[in-house]
Design brief:
Layout lengths: L1 H22 L6 E2 H8 L3 H13 L3 E4 L4 E4 L1 H14 L2 H15 L2 E8 L2 E8 L15 E3 L3 H8 L4 H8 L4 H6 L5 H14 L2 E3 L7 E9 L5 E10 L5 H26 L1
Antiparallel strand pairs: 1-3, 2-3, 4-5, 4-9, 5-6, 7-8, 8-9
Helix pairs in contact: 5-10
GO molecular function: DNA binding; DNA-binding transcription factor activity
Pfam families: HTH_IclR, IclR_C
InterPro entries: GAF-like_dom_sf, HTH_MetabolicPath_Reg, Tscrpt_reg_IclR_C, Tscrpt_reg_IclR_N, WH-like_DNA-bd_sf, WH_DNA-bd_sf
């Protein structure tokens, strides 16, 4: 019985991994070969699991492009769960104010495990934009302004666990994401209250972020702004950071009031 339980847990873990991989590229879907590479599983295993998920409506296969997409059953589940977990309604006014006052694109991201997931994007009026962030994109904590803003306010032991990734961040995102560099950015974030990402993911594409805390005081979400480097010069960072902190604080307070 114990062996069956372990095997069952392994299947659940693999299914969750595949769903996350497919969900990373909602616009175009993901090809089978790319899913196999990202999952670290054999092609027959991935193919069997994908087809089983499609049969349950959790995934959808586009025969014309031969790509896999999140399925209609996930949409239904998400709609049902939204009332309990979503803060989009609380965050949208803040995102709109940030976009209107700065001209930059504003985002809401949520922490999911050791990653952040972008939930909402509101476009600013400035005509030149950065497209590093979009709804559904995932980054490890410590990568991108949202992940840095959240990670900065986690317990130290959890920060060290996240940094001990065997070089995965450096391998995927470059030397600027070494543990030493991330620690320095986290310390700067704690001092200022907001984080600055100086084009670490894509050269010339800058971002700033501020954490939003849940009713228990845990950093669970983040607001962020992205744009080109010229729009994030040092003399403007204080203005942008102040706006981010103000809006993040408003949402945090609303979440506390909801709980009362």
């Amino acid at each position: 019985m114990a062996e069956k339980a372990v095997q069952g847990a392994q299947v659940v873990s693999r299914v969750a991994r595949l769903l996350r991989i497919v969900g990373r590229v909602p616009e175009t879907g993901v090809a089978l070969a790319d899913i196999v590479d990202a999952a670290g599983l054999t092609r027959p295993t991935v193919y069997r699991l994908l087809n089983s998920l499609a049969a349950e409506g959790l995934l959808d296969h586009n025969a014309e492009t031969n790509t896999w997409h999140l399925g209609p059953e996930l949409y239904v589940m998400g709609a049902v769960a939204a009332g309990r977990y979503a803060i989009e309604d609380l965050a949208r006014p803040s995102l709109q104010r940030l976009a209107d006052e700065t001209g930059e694109s504003a985002f809401l991201s949520i922490r999911r495990g050791d990653e952040t997931v972008c939930l909402v994007r509101v476009e600013g009026s400035f005509p030149v934009r950065s497209f590093v962030l979009h709804e559904g994109v995932r980054f490890p904590l410590g990568v991108a302004s949202a992940g840095l803003a959240i990670m900065a306010f986690l317990p130290e032991e959890e920060v060290e666990r996240l940094l001990d990734d065997g070089g995965a961040r450096v391998s995927r995102f470059g030397a600027a994401h070494s543990a030493e560099n991330i620690r320095a950015n986290l310390e700067a974030t704690r001092r200022a209250g907001y984080t600055v990402n100086p084009g670490l993911i894509l050269e010339g594409s800058w971002g700033m972020g501020a954490a939003v805390f849940d009713a228990n005081g845990n950093p669970a979400w983040a607001l962020s702004l992205t744009g080109i480097e010229q729009r994030f010069r040092p003399n403007r960072q204080e203005f942008l950071g102040k706006l981010l902190l103000e809006e993040a604080h408003k949402i945090t307070q609303q979440l506390k009031e909801r709980r009362r």
